[in-house]
Amino acid sequence: MRFSPQLRDLEWLVARPIAHRGLHTASTGIIENTESAFAAAIHHDYAIECDVQLTADDKVVVFHDDDLDRLTDAKGPVKAFTSKELKGVKLKSTTDRMQTLAELLEQVNGRSSLVIELKSLWDDNDALAKRALEVLENYAGPYCLMSFDPGLVACLRELSPHTVRGIVADRTTDSYYNALPLAMRYSMRTFGHLAQTQPHFVSYNWRELPFEPVTEIRKLGHPVITWTVRSKEEASQALRYCDQVTFEGYLP
Fold first, then answer.
1. Could you list the active site residues?
2. Where residue 59 sits, what CATH number does that domain have?
3. How many CB atoms lie within 10 A of CB 189?
4. Potential cystine with 206: which of 72, 136, 226, 250 (Cβ 3.0-4.6 Å)?
């Protein structure tokens, strides 16, 4: 696994701590993955991590959960609603509304680096990767795309090999993975997909480091960022094995 010549310099990716879903504090009405959270991250000069997924009308919206239940007054899967319908959905404890990826790009306008996670439904559908690349085509600011799903990362490599791409990973022991085939979980745990995905960086669960495959990838010169660090003490531990932290709940 090697960098292409155009992607050797990824210092921008690890230059600043990465605000997980923006710089959010629910108690003050700043909710994750919202315009206010991203504005706060920009104000404090942090990079921004965010999550995107597809709507019923194939728009890319900024939202983490597969369904609306936890963070909004509505219920049901995000993919069942059009972008217009989602604009009318009230987020709990805030006046913010759900953004599209295009609106987020307009807001950030290159002022912070963007670390954009493609949320997977594990349905072998690469439409989200395609649509995200289309939205980002003319964006001039620093950004990268990443996913837990090796299929989406491989799709990014095929469609846009010079777009910076990463794999989000852990040791696949969480119940989140129970619905996936064991062979797939093993491949994800051991990075058996590298020939297909060829990621430029890894985003790894800091609590599960050190881990030999990640150590070896880092030795090859690929940056490793970690998630999700929630204190300065945790950051100090994580930075023994990575190049930058994705954080929430404190200010680095």
1. 20, 64
2. 3.20.20.190
3. 17
4. 226
